[in-house]
Amino acid sequence: MSSDSTVLIFLGPPGAGKGTQAARLAADLGLRKISTGDILRAHVARGSELGKQVKPIMERGDLVPDELILAIIREELSGMPQVRVIFDGFPRTTQQALALDELLADISAPVDAALLLEVDEAELVGRMLQRAKMEGRSDDNEETIKRRLQVYREQTQPLIEYYRERGVLKTVDGLGDPGQVYCRIREAL
Ligand code: AMP
């Protein structure tokens, strides 16, 4: 990793544990976690204009338009004296990945690693239904879960190749308890 910036990306299907692992890694490495899903949910909760716009999209399990996501990312990165971040749930499309590379090129902060958390689909559905009970996320119902998995396969999975080609992909087995998965992540880095 370059000494003055750190950029990590968490890739993986919904329910793979990206948010949990990213939070722990951010705390341990002193990085800022930027979760586009959390930022969007906060907008929905406070009923902002953006929140009103994205609520139905999120409830369907579809992706929010790239321009809206990129505006959020630009704002999050602006004014950061040093870019030390973990992206959780971003990028999710090739266009977002290309735009991120451009943004990072401007500030000479390359992507250090894209961590892919691999979990099979049957396990994912179970985890998300469980999360629905614990957190009451409105997009954790069976129909939306199916849609989110389909969207992941169609729009986000191509990013695995994107980062593999750039030599920064690290694949981690996401099965098992969160502590075990975290150890694998630390080893991979
Ligand atoms: P997450 O919490 O990351 O699973 O995100 C929840 C929902 O927010 C997704 O199903 C999308 O509707 C939306 N979302 C979050 N991040 C992005 C992104 N990078 N691009 C497009 N939509 C996003």
Task: Give a brief description.
This protein is an alpha/beta fold.
Q: Rg from C-alpha positions?
A: 16 Å
How many separate domains? 1
Looking at the structure, the CATH topology is Rossmann fold
**What is the name of the CATH class?**
Alpha Beta
- Could you tell me the mean pLDDT? 93
Give the cofactors and ligands: adenosine monophosphate
The best one-word shape is globular
Biggest sheet character? 5 strands, parallel
Structural class by sheet pairing and helices? alpha/beta
CATH architecture: 3-Layer(aba) Sandwich
Order of SSEs: EHEHHHEHEHHHEH
Determine the CATH superfamily: P-loop containing nucleotide triphosphate hydrolases
Mind explaining what this structure looks like?
The chain has 189 residues and is an alpha/beta fold. The protein has one domain (6-178): 3-Layer(aba) Sandwich (Rossmann fold), CATH 3.40.50. 58% of the residues lie in helices and 14% in strands. The protein has a 5-stranded parallel beta sheet with strand order 2-3-1-4-5, sandwiched between helices. Helix 1 (18-29) crosses helix 9 (178-188), helix 2 (36-46) packs across helix 3 (49-60) and helix 6 (121-135) crosses helix 7. It is globular, with a radius of gyration of 16 Å. The model has no long low-confidence stretch (mean pLDDT 93). The protein binds adenosine monophosphate. Adenosine monophosphate binds next to helix 2 and helix 3.
